[in-house]
């Protein structure tokens, strides 16, 4: 499993864990929705996207 796949699984975990999802800011929710959708279409994330995503996942203890 690639690091990108692990990040997408972490996003999925956020969506199914109500307590984590409720802690996200509106911007984080929007960013994660867009990122997840884009990954499923393109099967890749840019370096910039990963650099923004990682701190969000770390902040909410999902990685």
UniProtKB/TrEMBL annotation:
Domain of life: Bacteria
Protein name: Uncharacterized protein
Organism in which the protein naturally occurs: Photobacterium carnosum
């Amino acid at each position: 499993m690639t690091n990108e796949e692990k990040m997408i699984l972490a996003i999925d975990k956020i969506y199914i864990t109500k307590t984590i999802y409720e802690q996200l800011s509106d911007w984080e929710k929007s960013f994660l929705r867009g990122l997840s959708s884009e990954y499923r279409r393109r099967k890749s994330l840019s370096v910039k996207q990963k650099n923004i995503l990682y701190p969000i996942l770390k902040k909410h203890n999902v990685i």
